[in-house]
Amino acid sequence: MTRREREREREREREHDHEKSCPLDANIYATRKTVAQGMMDIALLTANASQLKHVLATADTHDYYLINLVLIGSSMTLQIMVGILLVVVGRWNINKRKDQNVANVTNNVIVILIFLITVVNVLITAFGDEEPDYVITQKQWQEPRNGIVGDDVYRLDRELKATFNDTEI
C-alpha cells in the first residue's frame, strides 16, 4: 500500500467510527418535523382568523359572505384537528416498534388533512374580496380632505408635482 492509500483508509475508518458514535435518531428528527408543522399550522390559523375578522366586518358588502364563512370555519376546524394530532404524534417514541405503526397511520391522516386545508384555503382565496378596504383609489388620493390621506402627504404630493413640472425631461 502506498502512503496515499493508507491515508485514505484511515480517513474512511475515522468517518465510519464517527457514524457509529452519532447515528441519526429518528425520534428526534420526527419531533423536530412535528414542531415545524405545528408552527406552520399556527401561522395559517392566524391568517384564517384575520380573514374571518375581515369577512365578519364586511358582512353587508361581501359578495360571498356565507361561502367564505363556511370555508374559513372549515379550514380552522381542520387546522385544530391537525394541531391535536401533531401533539399526539409528537408524544410517541417511533424507536419503539409498537408506536411506529400507529404513528405512521396518524402521520398519513395528517398529510390528508393538510391537503384538504390547502384546497379549502385556495377556495377561500378564490371567493375573497376583489379589492380590500385599505386600497386608496385615485379619487381619494386627489381629495385628501376625506380623512384617508393626511395634510402632510397632500403637501408632499403637491411639492413633487411642482418639482416635476419645473424640470425638463
From TrEMBL:
Annotated TM spans: 65-89, 109-128
Renumbered residue ranges of the record's region Disordered: 1-20
Membrane-related topology note: Multi-pass membrane protein
GO biological process: cell adhesion; tissue regeneration
Keyword terms of this UniProt record: Cell adhesion, Membrane, Transmembrane, Transmembrane helix
Entries under Pfam families matching the protein: Ninjurin
Main localization, broad class: membrane
Localization: Membrane
GO cellular component: membrane
PANTHER family noted in UniProt: NINJURIN C, ISOFORM D (PTHR12316:SF17), NINJURIN-RELATED (PTHR12316)
Family to which the UniProt record says this protein belongs: Belongs to the ninjurin family.
Protein name: Ninjurin-2
Organism expressing this protein natively: Caerostris extrusa
UniProt lineage: Eukaryota, Metazoa, Ecdysozoa, Arthropoda, Chelicerata
